[in-house]
Structures are given as C-alpha cells and as structure tokens.
Amino acid sequence: MTIKPLIILPDPVLRQVSAPIETVNDELKTLADDMLETMYDAPGIGLAAIQVGIPKRMLVIDLSREGEDKAPQVFINPEILAFSDDRSTYEEGCLSIPAYYAEVERPARITVKHVGLDGKEHLVEADGLLATCLQHEIDHLNGVLFIDHISRLKREMVIKRFTKAAKAKI
C-alpha cells in the first residue's frame, strides 16, 4: 500500500467532477487500499479519490474509533437516492482543507446506492455520522467542498487563507 499526497485547497483539481467507474478490477482495489492507507495516515474518517488527484467516483470511509478494530468501507459510483426532511448538524473538517472546521447542516438520513469491491450493487440506509460523512465525500465527487455549505464570507476567508499559504510555498 502507498500513501498518496493529498490535494490541498486552493488546487482547482478539487473542483473537478469525477467520472464513473466502469469496472471493478485489481487496479481499482489497489487504489482503494492506497486511499485507506492515506486516510489512516492523515488521519481522517473519509477520503474521495479526487483528493489524491484521481477523478474517479470512489470514496472510502472508516468511522471506527481509536482502539476499535478498523471498519473500512469502499463506495464505488455512490449515488444518493433519498434524503430525509429532518436535518442534523456536525462540525466538519476535510483532509484537503487541513486544520479548518465548521458546523454544517445536512439531511439527517440518506439512502445511498453504490457498487462494492465485490462488483455488486449495494443499498445503504445511513444516519448520524455515516450520513454526514457520505454526503461530504459524495460532494467531493461532484466538485463541491464542505465550505460551500457555510456562509459566503467565511468561505471567502478560508479560500483566501489557503491561497496565501499556497503562494508562500512557491
């Protein structure tokens, strides 16, 4: 397994819409392993392929807590089929926007259709942190960042700060 470099804001790659995956093969399984290793190393609880510069519709999640056995989940071509009307708010962060967190309100429950590494279609009814994490990562596949769900003023401040930091590294 290989730890891949993370794409960091303001890199325009993060705004790309990811392409559907046609087949589940060994190369894709290796990518999933690499993404999980990268996510664990960061550390984080979710990672979309675009965050490692690969515009494919795949994401990985592991909501296990420290001290618990790892529980990795891989979602290929995830699609949200249904949202609940009730909402929940979580403080979200992002491996591509390090050390920045904000309260984001999203639907409390969702139904997601996806393909697993077994190549079969699965349906997941998610609530709580899993629902929030799936929505966050699926947003990435559509070129949307969690800061797009906060006020324009806060979003512009975050983008400005990360743009300035990126220029300082050049």
TrEMBL record:
Active site: E137
Cofactor, how bound (note): Binds 1 Fe(2+) ion.
Top-level taxon: Bacteria
Entry-linked Pfam families: Pep_deformylase
Keyword Iron annotated: yes
E.C. no: 3.5.1.88
Record field: catalytic activity: N-terminal N-formyl-L-methionyl-[peptide] + H2O = N-terminal L-methionyl-[peptide] + formate
Catalytic class of the enzyme: hydrolase
Essential cofactor(s): Fe(2+)
CDD domains: Pep_deformylase (cd00487)
The keyword Cell cycle is annotated on this UniProt entry: no
Similarity comment text for this entry: Belongs to the polypeptide deformylase family.
Cited function: Removes the formyl group from the N-terminal Met of newly synthesized proteins. Requires at least a dipeptide for an efficient rate of reaction. N-terminal L-methionine is a prerequisite for activity but the enzyme has broad specificity at other positions.
PANTHER family the record matches: PEPTIDE DEFORMYLASE (PTHR10458:SF22)
NCBIfam families: pept_deformyl (TIGR00079), PRK00150.1-3 (NF001159)
Protein name, per record: Peptide deformylase
Species of provenance: Rhizobium alvei
The gene coding this protein: def
